[in-house]
Design goal:
Layout: H1 2-18, E1 20-21, E2 24-25, E3 29-37, E4 40-42, E5 45-48, E6 51-60, E7 63-72, E8 85-94, E9 100-108, E10 127-136, E11 145-154, E12 167-177, E13 180-189, E14 206-219, E15 225-235, E16 240-249
């Protein structure tokens, strides 16, 4: 597993170098944003309460590298244990105008104070390594997208200690009503994969994430607006539902 660790560190170093050319930064796009949400719900599963979720992204051509995080406000002295803390790194490549995007991500949510971020040993690491393939239909009147994600290495293990290959599929359909941007979501676990990362026995196909998200900019000045959003989420598999409100801060 030391070879795997060296490979990961080497990949990160190569990505960083790719954004620098001599003394000049080559990144064509830089994304900075932070979301404050009333609760953190991931793929239909409740994670924690009020959270702040920053994003830092870089893009060059069809390649992007994004760091996304989430932390709640409990701190290390929480009566329920360490505060929730997640750091996800995603490298993605979009194949021109084909509508196809390939991504590889490291998902890490061990919590505040867990440390050992750089432990990549197969049966000790808290990282979940996930590959994704997304496609958006090339139709202006039907901009439906579908994405498939599979965890291929890391902490997603089955009860025998082998890789579980937990997968998740999500369909998104964006549309607008007047000045409100909406997105309809349908996410599901496509096949039986044991308990795995989702924390519940998956007895075959299971819909876990039905949602509708509405986003609107609140105008503050002629040059500055604050996007707000609300999202209704239903998880038929868990017989659960959530209503999330959020505020986005960005330049």
């Amino acid at each position: 597993m030391n070879h795997f660790k060296v490979t990961i560190i080497g990949f990160i170093a190569a990505v960083v170098v790719s954004f620098y050319g001599g003394d000049k930064v080559c990144a064509q796009e830089v994304r900075i944003q932070g979301d404050l949400v009333s609760s953190y719900v991931w793929r239909g599963f409740y994670q924690t309460g009020v959270s702040f979720q920053p994003t830092l992204g870089f893009g060059i051509g069809d390649f992007s590298l994004t760091a996304w995080g989430s932390t709640d406000f409990d701190g290390t002295s929480s009566s329920e244990g360490a505060a929730a803390k997640e750091i996800d790194l995603t490298a993605a490549y979009t194949f021109g105008d084909s509508g196809l995007t390939l991504s590889v991500a490291s998902l890490w949510w061990a919590g505040q104070g867990a440390n050992k971020y750089f432990n990549f040993k197969s049966h000790e690491t808290a990282h979940h390594f996930e590959a994704g393939l997304a496609y958006t239909l090339p139709l202006e009147k039907l901009p439906l997208s579908i994405a498939w994600y599979t965890m291929f290495a890391g902490a997603d293990k089955n009860d025998k200690g082998g890789q579980n290959y937990s997968s998740y599929v999500e369909l998104n359909y964006p549309f607008s009503i007047k000045s409100v941007d909406l997105n309809a979501i349908c996410g599901f676990l496509p096949y039986e994969a044991g308990v795995g990362v989702y924390g519940v026995p998956n007895r075959g196909f299971a819909v876990t994430n039905l949602g509708l998200k509405a986003t609107k900019d609140i105008k503050v000045t002629d040059k500055f607006a604050i996007p707000i959003f609300a999202q209704a989420i239903w998880n038929p598999r868990m017989e659960d539902a959530h209503l999330v409100f959020g505020i986005t801060l960005k330049p």
